[in-house]
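During the reporting period the student researcher (J.K.) took over the structure-prediction task from the postdoctoral fellow and processed the backlog of single-chain submissions. One of the processed entries is reproduced below for the supervisory committee.
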Amino acid sequence: MIDDIKKRALHRTKIIEGQLRGIEKMIENEDYCVDIITLSLAVQKSLGSLNKLLVENHLRTHVTDMYEAGGDQHDAAVAELLRIFELSNNRG
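J.K. obtained the following structure tokens:
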């Protein structure tokens, strides 16, 4: 993993962890539903940011190497990118 991206991704996971703990406490305390939903949506946005970092790392490392290798590796890289695109569209 690229060092800068790894650092940013780990930071993002710590933020998400804290947000999830916050949601758990809000549910336990029976806080106002809209406040819980607001934080839940923030978690989803944070996960999107994490996914963007992971895709960036994958493109800058593995996909680049696979493209340069050519042949079957090139085709496998295209297939992976299509799979990520499909997963994103199905879950987004």
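The committee noted the following: The helical segments are 3-28, 33-69, 71-91.
J.K. will present the remaining backlog at the next meeting.
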